[in-house]
Amino acid sequence: MLADVGGVPLVVRTWAAVHAAGFDRLVVATDDEEIARVVAAAGGEAVLTGEAPNGTVRVAEAVRRLAWPADVVLNVQGDEPLVQVETLRAVAASLTGSAGHGFDVGTAAAPLEPAEAELAERVKVVTGAGERALFFSRSPIPTGGPWRVHVGVYAFRAGVLERLIRLPVSTLEQSERLEQLRWLENGVPIRVVEVAAPGPSVDTATDLARVREIVAARRARLG
Total structural domains in the chain? Predict the structure, then answer.
């Protein structure tokens, strides 16, 4: 999270990308005092939580500590410095209107290049009728494609976070190392909206180098 990307810490890059979407409130939840410090120095708000096994537990604790009366809580992973404003707004709106009725969780997917389908760090998602998630996997599903990559942004209805973090760890979750499978196994409906191909998240050292190149190229174009 503190890796330098064009002279700015990675987490601050992500914070700035989310800030551009203009949501009511934006908070970085972390258990690291240095991360909280650099976010505050950039003009952001941070809340210190305890250690957490996953992002959902951390977000739930942050909401609890802040006594946040939000209708919808958006969770953006800190390793998404190139996340697009349109993606954030689409996920935030995924639980509203008639199409969002009956869903407790919203997220997004985008087309995936066949060359990346075998990469375990690119989580694939398959959906059914009404944009309902059927399964998430690190394997290339469905067999033969076309493949869609899961974008690491979630929207949660108020109150559902506490329910989700109390569900028991599931076999599928452990097998794939994907917490959202726990929700599906327990009958929690997840809506998956289609968005444009995202900028790369930073899951590996190769991803970090790629993001640095993209940021450097953008700065060069702007002079």
Answer: 1
For CA atoms 183, 186, 188, 192, give the dihedral sign. positive
Question: Of 158, 56, 156, nearest to 106 (Cα)?
Answer: 156
Q: pTM to 2 decimals?
A: 0.90
Boundaries of domain holding 184: 4-221
With bands split at pLDDT 50, 70 and 90, how would you rate the model's confidence at 175? Answer: very high
Residue 208 tokens, joined? 């970090």
Which pLDDT tens digit goes with each residue over 55-110? 999 999 999 999 888 889 999 999 999 999 999 999 999 999 998 999 999 999 99
